[in-house]
Write a structure and sequence with these properties.
By secondary structure, the chain is α+β, with helices and mostly antiparallel strands. It has two domains: 74 residues, no CATH class; 59 residues. The protein is 42% helix and 15% strand. The chain is built from eight helices and six strands; from the N terminus they run αβαααββαβααββα. It has a three-stranded antiparallel sheet. A three-stranded antiparallel sheet has the order 4-6-5.
Length: 154
């Protein structure tokens, strides 16, 4: 097999899950990685939520272990579920790719690749507007983006 490394998937899953249970970290606390896995939110989006904590009321960490932050899972869940979802707009409203990224909890830089390399299930733009310099603004139906978001969290 040369230099290819392989692992048993069950052993890998057990190892990965044990990362949350670091020594000295009580049960019921989740790191950023744990929150990302549990809620399907990117690490970048979690960092942005934490950076805006004065505006959004993000809970304080329950534990700092080295440089890692851990949040009480129940308190974080209650706070996260109370956040505005972005679903408030009209379903037929057209949104830019950047706004679609915000609805998905993605950074504007990471969602730009969706135009050229769309992930499975990504909606087609409803409208494309030519801009100067050969650029194109793609507009998506809000309902289509929200349907894509729902399909990712099932």
């Amino acid at each position: 097999m040369g230099r290819t490394l392989t692992w048993d998937s069950d052993a890998w899953d057990a190892w990965y899950a044990a990362r949350e249970a670091a020594p000295g970290v009580p049960e019921g606390l989740l790191s950023r990685d744990g929150l990302a896995a549990a809620y399907g939110v990117s690490r970048h989006a979690l960092k942005e939520l934490w950076a805006a904590r004065e505006d959004n009321g993000h809970p304080e960490p329950a534990l700092t272990h080295g440089k890692a932050l851990y949040w009480d899972a129940a308190a974080w869940d209650a706070w996260y579920r109370a956040l505005p979802s972005g679903d408030e707009g009209e379903p037929s409203e057209l949104v830019t790719l950047a706004e679609a990224g915000r609805l998905l909890g993605l950074s504007s830089g990471s969602v730009t690749v969706y135009a050229s390399r769309p992930p499975k299930g990504w909606p087609e733009p409803v409208e494309e507007v030519a801009l100067g310099g050969g650029r194109v603004r793609r507009l998506y139906r809000r309902a289509d983006v929200l349907a894509y978001r729902a399909s990712r969290t099932r």
